[in-house]
Design goal:
about 325 residues, mainly alpha, MetI-like fold, 14 helices, globular
Length: about 325
């Protein structure tokens, strides 16, 4: 197990290096001239050239990348071109907000998807199975932004049960209950597609597991169905479910931009959205790199958890400790 974990950690290094190159190049090669955005369309070419030199944009891309990566390794993500503040001061507080939203959405998705998948697998072929499966298929087909707008229309505008935007009240807010009430709608909207996917994967995996010979033997011995599900089927069905769950958490962290924009949630996705509009490249680079790092670390955690749950995974990859 230790060798397996160390091997996975070592594989993360080249992955992160590749991610940093992709992030840097995608932002640098984006269409448009950042100097025109910052100085305005009426700025002279001489003023633009001076600004490019001050920002280091007149240097070759490999030199720019090397300088940027060296600074990032020291914890320096640069200075925001728009806000004139260190990028780290902008993105890290917002990442906490995004992690809160993504974590809450993931918790809802895990509970809803896992429980519905297990129950439908236990009652496969029944009317209950068909209704829940169809409902999950519908939820999984709803675009994030459309689902968010529907929830806002119903619960915030029509029934006025929950607030529509922001993280706290503008005046007199800030308590835990205030944050929780603002968190409900965006977390539910973000969780629905993930819950649908987890439900389908859980159902398919459980049905396959319940068809195995050792399950039939357990039934023949008269073991109760609840015990078979809990002690025999669930453990062997967990690895693919854990894999999908980890991927969905990474997806929520990186793909929750639309939800943050719809609900004006002050998270990292909202920062990236505004930075792209304002051509604030250092902020975009820093934010995307942090999201990519979080996604890679989540995948690493999923691999280690799966290896713990299924020793055959370590054996197949030469990771069994001797």
């Amino acid at each position: 197990m230790v060798r397996f974990t160390i091997g996975r950690i070592l594989l993360v290094v080249p992955v992160l290096l590749g991610v940093s190159i992709i992030v840097f190049m995608l932002v640098q090669l984006a269409p448009g001239d950042v100097t025109s955005t910052l100085l305005g369309p009426m700025a002279s070419e001489n003023a633009k050239e001076v600004l490019r030199a001050e920002m280091g944009l007149d240097r070759p891309l490999p030199v720019q990348y090397g300088k940027w990566l060296a600074a990032v390794l020291q914890g320096d993500f640069g200075t925001s071109w728009v806000h004139k503040r260190p990028v780290s001061e902008i993105i890290f507080p917002k990442f906490v907000n995004t992690a809160l939203l993504a974590g809450s959405a993931a918790l809802i998705a895990y509970v809803l998807g896992f429980s519905s998948g297990v129950f439908t697998a236990a009652k496969a072929g029944t009317l209950f199975d068909r209704i829940v499966t169809a409902l999950m298929l519908i939820l999984g087909s709803i675009p994030l932004y459309w689902g968010g707008l529907v929830l806002v229309f119903l619960f915030a505008l029509t029934w006025r049960w929950l607030p529509a935007t922001g993280m706290t009240k503008t005046i007199g807010g800030g308590g835990a209950l205030d944050v929780l009430t603002h968190l409900v709608l965006p977390a539910v909207a973000a969780s629905l597609p993930s819950a649908a996917l987890i439900s389908r994967i859980t159902r398919a995996t459980m049905i396959e597991t319940l068809s195995q010979n050792y399950i039939r033997v357990a039934r023949a011995k008269g073991i109760r169905r609840a015990i078979i599900l809990r002690k025999h089927a669930l453990r062997n069905a967990l690895p693919p479910i854990v894999t999908v769950g980890g991927m969905e958490l990474g997806y929520l962290l990186g793909g929750i931009v639309l939800i943050e924009v719809v609900f004006a949630w002050p998270g990292l996705g909202f920062v990236v959205y505004n930075a792209i509009i304002g051509r604030d490249l250092p902020t975009v680079q820093g934010a995307v790199l942090i999201l990519a790092l979080a996604f890679v670390l989540i995948n690493l955690t999923v691999d280690v958890v799966n290896a713990y749950l299924d020793p055959a995974t370590r054996a197949a990859e030469g990771g069994v400790d001797r």
